[in-house]
Specification:
Acyl_CoA_acyltransferase; 5 helices; GNAT_dom; Aminopeptidase; GNAT family protein
Length: 206
């Protein structure tokens, strides 16, 4: 088995968000997005600091060149940079991949941009690439992330205890989630409903 199409950089566009292949030209917008909420200050996240952003972009692009990651920059439809996300842990033998290394500017949390980005990524993974499984992982301490992944419709597979260390040296427990191919139609319907509800909630009537 392998992917139905070659897994390579691609632009995915929805109503609220556009996912573009990560490029160094996004650096200034990503640096500005980092300052919105100072996400790197939270010890349990892997969000790069402003000083480490350039190295993180280089790292992701190097992994892309090695065929191990497809990194994206998330932008609003007006071109404002929201954050970053990736396909990684790519295994063509299943085929499967994981979605992660995601962060978005804090002011966009709860606006629907993240669920739509996940809808775009999942749709491409299952409907175009032919994945059998799409995984997610986060840290046990990151309750916000765990709840967000569960709201997508992913099922928790388990916890890898003392999986690695945080930047501060504390041991980290990783929580694993996944969506299987046969579950995708239900997850897709759920996400579309969430996004329609969000649009109706913020609709302006004359």
């Amino acid at each position: 088995m392998t992917f139905a199409q070659p897994i390579e950089p691609v632009t995915l566009e929805g109503r609220l968000v556009r996912l573009e292949p990560l490029a160094r030209a996004h650096s200034a917008g990503l640096a500005e997005a980092l300052e919105d909420g100072r996400m790197w200050d939270r010890w349990y996240t892997s969000v790069p600091s402003p000083e480490g952003l350039s190295a993180e972009i280089d790292r992701r692009l190097a992994l892309q060149d090695a065929g191990q990651m497809i990194p994206f920059t998330a932008l609003a439809t007006d071109g404002t940079v929201l954050g970053m996300t990736t396909y990684y842990d790519i295994d063509p033998d299943v085929p499967r991949l994981e979605i992660g290394y995601t962060w978005n500017r804090q002011s966009t949390h709860g606006t629907g941009t993240n669920p739509e980005a996940k809808l775009l990524l999942l749709g491409h993974a299952f409907d175009v690439l032919g994945c059998e499984c799409v995984g997610f992982r986060t840290q046990w301490a990151n309750v916000q992330s765990r709840e967000a992944i569960a709201r997508l419709g992913a099922k928790q597979d388990g916890v890898l205890r003392s999986y690695r260390r945080y930047r501060n040296g504390a041991l980290q427990d990783a929580v694993l989630f996944s969506i299987l191919r046969h579950e995708w139609p239900s997850v897709r319907a759920h996400l579309r409903h969430r996004l329609r509800y969000r649009a109706a909630e913020y609709a302006v009537t004359p």
